Amino acid sequence: xxxxxxxxxxxxxxxxxxxxxxxxxxxxxxxxxxxxxxxxxxxxxxxxxxxxxxxxxxxxxxxxxxxxxxxxxxxxxxxxxxxxxxxxxxxxxxxxxxxxxxxxxxxxxxxxxxxxxxxxxxxxxxxxxxxxxxxxxxxxxxxxxxxxxxxxxxxxxxxxxxxxxxxxxxxxxxxxxxxxxxxxxxxxxxxxxxxxxxxxxxxxxxxxxxxxxxxxxxxxxxxxxxxxxxxxxxxxxxxxxxxxxxxxxxxxxxxxxxxxxxxxxxxxxxxxxxxxxxxxxxxxxxxxxxxxxx
Amino acid sequence: xxxxxxxxxxxxxxxxxxxxxxxxxxxxxxxxxxxxxxxxxxxxxxxxxxxxxxxxxxxxxxxxxxxxxxxxxxxxxxxxxxxxxxxxxxxxxxxxxxxxxxxxxxxxxxxxxxxxxxxxxxxxxxxxxxxxxxxxxxxxxxxxxxxxxxxxxxxxxxxxxxxxxxxxxxxxxxxxxxxxxxxxxxxxxxxxxxxxxxxxxxxxxxxxxxxxxxxxxxxxxxxxxxxxxxxxxxxxxxxxxxxxxxxxxxxxxxxxxxxxxxxxxxxxxxxxxxxxxxxxxxxxxxxxxxxxxx
Lengths: 294, 294
What we know:
Two copies of one chain form a homodimer.
Chain A: H1 11-17, H2 25-45, H3 49-64, H4 72-79, H5 82-90, E1 128-136, E2 147-151, E3 173-177, E4 183-189, E5 194-195, H6 201-208, E6 214-215, E7 218-224, E8 231-237, E9 256-257, E10 261-262, H7 265-271, E11 277-281, E12 284-285
Helix pairs in contact in A: 1-2
């Protein structure tokens, strides 16, 4: 690095030039663009020194709030829509496959392998629900042996990893394998809406901007099958509050499903749930490996 | 917040709309601009999920590296030229007053009041130097009773606050008051170039981008006078390495000075330095309070 001295007018060019010697051309590209957009932001709002100080303090505390089970920078990325943007850019579907949405910060552990039909609701709370669906390829071919990794928050709005010692281990979490017709089914509870953790810097930001911290009711999925492109997504509950104001911008119309009640004692006995029970059906379509959205 | 669902095309608009209810209009403006520029950056480089993960980890560790005597986010702001840009935007001089530069992370303590002529080099290391100058207003009027706060790194490249127990307390730091002619003078050492702390995430960034961590030799000043606008700046040593590649982009041509040697035993005895000694002269001009650069 060697060259032109800093000036307000040419600040981004001067700083970007300092990255000219970067061995990795992709890193040069990313840092150059970052500097250009960051400087444009500072100039656009004419950021004051006091505001800069607030930002430094906010970012510092965001890092310091993070630990093994709390990732405050992912939350910040989430509430600024950056996580959803990165997810969307990297998983364009072209309408040919199930749309993706954010992974979220709570897929921190391996989900336990379970048999089709198993009950993942280990804490005995919530409205009982049969979740089922079929995994197919782009031409409707059933994907037998696909992995279906699911996890959801409990009736109180917390994931198992947020409440070690309170919830049973692996509560509301499971790794299923589809049958010969690509089908999966398991017993769980109807998901409920819940707030993202709002006792840290991100919560302060939401409060200062009069935004609520809630996510509409959803069940997470990661579906993988050999030779096909994985999908990370949610299914959302149709009548949930906050469907039009998800704190992390994760909702897509194509991912919303009704969760109707079934009143049929024989069917209830067959699936091992009390009558009546709710049903959530979510079919997923995967692109082939190497297939690009068109 | 309520409205349009997220899409790649309209991501920034959708997220910006979530800030529409912010009570403080300035915060709405800042967050809206931030979201627009941040999303533009992600789209510009089509950030991958892996790169996003690296960024989350980098920012988290940057927060966690910070403590009472180490502010890694300020360092990050510094090496991206953001600190210098904020400083420059908020202290436009129009060529009428001494130019400002970054405060830096090491003005963490009150400088001890000292008498004109005092020696601030308490550790006995380095090339002895007489530092002097005059503080004036925009019409050349001398500013008697102005405060001149100075601090610099020692011969080994560390500030006193970085080496508690190693350097004497308040080593190379002092708060002086100008005399009736607005003049100040004190004994110190010729500043040396030094690396910013590079054992953290910012050091990793510099290494990955083949940038050196060094700052050219400089002495920090904050000069204040009642009725005048304060100036935060440095004076740089003319023959220092890294003058054209300051790791934090702080150098301005108008702030560079020669530090000539004086070989005059009588003068040396008068100022209390061994003969020969070096001299650094730095006069400062302050704008009047409320005066805007034109």
